[in-house]
Amino acid sequence: MTEIREKHMAEKVNPFTAIWLQTRKAVRYVIDAKSAGYAIALILLAGIGSGLMGMQSSGLNDSIPTWIILLGALLLFPVISLASAAVIAALYLVVGKLFKGTGTYMDLFKTTGAAMIPYIWLAPLLILWILVSPDTYFADPFAVAQPGGGAIVGAVLYGVIAMIIAIWSIIIHSKAIGEAHRFSAWKGFFTLMIPAVIFGLVIFGIVLLFIVLIAGATIYGG
Q1: In this protein, which residues make up the domain named Yip1 (predicted)?
Q2: What does each C-alpha distance from 149 to 64, 72, 131, 179 come to in angstroms?
Q3: Residues whose CB falls within 8 Å of the CB of residue 107, separated by 6 or more in sequence, listed in order
Q4: Angle subtended by helix axes 36-55 and 117-132, to nearest 10
């Protein structure tokens, strides 16, 4: 085991390119050779891309100037991303232990940073799109008529790219978690999905409870 670990540490790769097709090798290199500060930098940068993805077709520029949106994205999303990654790493640690995983919290934290590299690649493209044509980025292309259908074409193209990145991101995360915990990518996939499902159910329960309380207050208040 020691020889295998030393071999991985000696084999240098560029995480920014290797993460796409050599996920396990890239993650192992980040875990063994990179510091926590390196992982934090990855998470902060990736937060910009993931945050901007979430704002696409949001219509925010109708009420907020584009430069304020970008400034907020550069300042706020990295902080949110770092806080989320700290919690997510703990969840991956706990759930992974159920599958007999051997990773530590720091292993999973570094892994989370490495697995978010695709969003770093995406960030400059999204920022460029926002700067060149903020209306087509933030507006609903199917609700706003555009000459030549430019908004629709842009939305479809973006949708295809976003879907590919989302699917590949799941694959990357599954392999990355598997490498950190020293088990299969399938176990990594379930380690990834179980917290997501639980979190989704919690949010659904909170929203449902809120609706029930509002409905009850309306009935008895009327």
Answers
A1: 19-205
A2: 25, 30, 20, 45
A3: 31, 180, 181
A4: 40
| Model pTM score | 0.80
Are residues 91 and 65 in contact, defined by beta-carbon separation less than 8 angstroms? Answer: no
Name the residue type at position 113.
G
Q: Which two tokens stand for residue 201?
A: 């159910």
- Structural domain boundaries of the chain? 2-221
State how far the Cα of 139 lies from the Cα of 165, in Å rounded to an integer.
22
Cα separations in angstroms, 125 against 1, 46, 104, 139, 199: 42, 13, 34, 17, 30
According to DSSP, residue 34 is labeled: S
In the numeric block, the tokens 């993805």 are attached to 53
**Two tokens, residue 27:** 């993650």
Three-state SS at 177: helix
Q: Which among 85, 76, 74 has a CA at the least distance from the CA of 43?
A: 85
Among residues 37, 39, 84, 42, the alpha carbon closest in space to that of 180 is found at 39
- Whole-angstrom CA distances from 121 to 55, 104, 154, 204, 208 are 17, 27, 19, 32, 37
Q: What is the pLDDT of residue 6?
A: 44
d(CA 10, CA 48): 32
Distance CA 221, CA 199 (A): 32
190-215 per-position pLDDT tens digit: 999 998 888 778 878 887 777 777 76
